[in-house]
């Protein structure tokens, strides 16, 4: 199905680029909350657990055997969230929050792990190899690569105090 609900060139372009069609993204509902199926791009090698929330503008792209797994309760957005896994694995833990604001994760030949309850927001860039522990927070215009960030507070914590922050 094309963006307006009829088969067409947008779905052809999505499929040719390795993404699900609009109808296939819509088919993720109600287990995965997709707030605007026409504006979300989900790659064929992406696993989304029940309870994941995808805001408009989310891009989950897999290339060259890469994969992305998003655990239950994770929220991607609001804001542009882009995750690209090229010959690598990106794992986003349960109750993790990517956004508000732009968040980019790129894993090219090196894995990225975002732990349970981690919070990434405000223009951060995370590149593999990186492991962000449970409750870790990467806030603002920050780039992280080849790093390990220890566990911290969960996303329920109103401030970054209580966990490591970059």
How would you sum up this structure, described in words?
This protein is mainly β. It contains two helices and 16 strands. Strands 2, 3, 5, 6, 8, 9, 11, 12, 14 and 16 form a ten-stranded parallel β-sheet that branches. It is globular. The termini are far apart. The mean pLDDT is 90.
List the helices and strands and how they pair.
Blueprint: H1 9-16, H2 22-26, E1 33-34, E2 41-42, E3 46-48, E4 53-54, E5 59-63, E6 67-70, E7 75-76, E8 81-86, E9 89-92, E10 97-98, E11 103-108, E12 112-114, E13 119-121, E14 124-132, E15 137-139, E16 143-149
Parallel strand pairs: 1-4, 2-5, 3-6, 4-7, 5-8, 6-9, 7-10, 8-11, 9-12, 10-13, 11-14, 12-14, 13-15, 14-16
Instruction: Please give the largest β-sheet.
Output: 10 strands, parallel
Average pLDDT across residues?
Answer: 90
Overall body shape: globular
H/E topology pattern = HHEEEEEEEEEEEEEEEE
List keywords for this structure.
166 residues; mainly beta; 6-stranded parallel beta sheet; globular
Q: Quick gist of this model?
A:
This protein is mainly beta and 166 residues long. The chain is built from 2 helices and 16 strands. 8% of the residues lie in helices and 38% in strands.
């Amino acid at each position: 199905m094309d963006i307006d609900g009829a088969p067409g060139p947008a779905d052809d372009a999505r499929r040719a680029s390795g993404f699900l069609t609009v109808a296939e993204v819509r088919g993720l509902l109600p287990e995965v909350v997709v707030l605007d199926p026409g504006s979300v791009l989900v790659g064929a090698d992406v696993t989304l657990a029940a309870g994941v929330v995808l805001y408009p503008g989310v891009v989950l792209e897999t290339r060259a055997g890469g994969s992305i797994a998003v655990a239950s309760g994770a929220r991607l957005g609001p804001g542009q969230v882009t995750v690209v896994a090229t010959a690598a694995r990106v794992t986003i833990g349960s109750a993790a929050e990517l956004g508000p604001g732009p968040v980019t994760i790129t894993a090219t030949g090196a894995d990225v792990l975002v732990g349970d309850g981690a919070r990434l927001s405000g223009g951060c860039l995370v590149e593999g190899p990186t492991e962000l522990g449970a409750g870790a927070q990467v806030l603002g215009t920050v780039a992280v690569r080849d790093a390990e960030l220890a566990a911290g507070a969960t996303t329920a914590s109103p401030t970054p105090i209580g966990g490591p922050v970059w």
